[in-house]
TrEMBL record:
Name of the protein described by the UniProt record: Tat pathway signal sequence domain protein
Keyword line: Signal
Signal peptide residue numbers: 1-32
Organism phylogeny: Bacteria, Pseudomonadati, Pseudomonadota, Alphaproteobacteria, Hyphomicrobiales
Organism in which the protein naturally occurs: Rhodopseudomonas palustris (strain HaA2)
Amino acid sequence: MRATIDGPRTRRKGTIAALAACAMTATLTAAAAQSPAPSPAPPSTATVERNARAAAGKPVRVGVYVNVQPDCSSGPLPSIRLVSPPGNGTVQIKRGKISATNYKQCLALEVPGFVAFYQSKADFAGTDTVTLEVKFPQGRIELQRITVTVGVGPGGQKI
């Protein structure tokens, strides 16, 4: 390793500066090893319980995920992971444009988002549960445990 030292009268290249740089690095490394940096707190995870109703074999919307900024524009979308799949159906996450009126301070808006749909087996009646993990851009994590009652009444339920 070579370094350059500039002074008022001389310009020297050599190992002196390299040794000084190594000594400085060793000192900083030793100091860092003696006092470990505090580790950031892990993001907190909140569990949210939700319910939905669906007709057997018909898709029903069970979640809408957007990130609306204070100026009514869209921010980065959350990431969604299937933690535990339903035992008697399927879950699909679709990306699309979400239109809303009177959402927060936004009177009319259209932003990108994710929509989660549940669909039971055609011959299933009863309750089914799915768990989704939603990680928001600010670091917040939600476990959404969604219980779907299938076969009760016609049609599904809007969320």
